[in-house]
C-alpha cells in the first residue's frame, strides 16, 4: 500500500507546477498588463486623434443611420434644405 501512496504522491507533485515559476509568470503578466494600461492612458490623453480615427466606415455608417446625428446643423447637406423649400 505504501508503494501506491508514494506513486500517487509523486504523480501529483509532477503534475503540479512550481510555485516560484507560477509566481514569476503571474508577475510578468501583471507588469505587461500595467505597461499596456499606461500606454493606453497616455494615448487617451493626447488632444488629437490619429489619422483616420473619424473616417473609418463604422463611424460614418452610424452618422448616416442615426437621423438625430445626421440631421444636425453642419452635417446636413445644404441642398436638402433647398429641396425642402421647393416642395
TrEMBL record:
Listed Pfam families: NDUFB11
Top-level taxon in the UniProt lineage: Eukaryota
PANTHER family: EXPRESSED PROTEIN
Name this protein carries in UniProt: NADH-ubiquinone oxidoreductase 11 kDa subunit
Species, as recorded: Solanum commersonii (Commerson's wild potato)
Lineage: Eukaryota, Viridiplantae, Streptophyta, Embryophyta, Tracheophyta
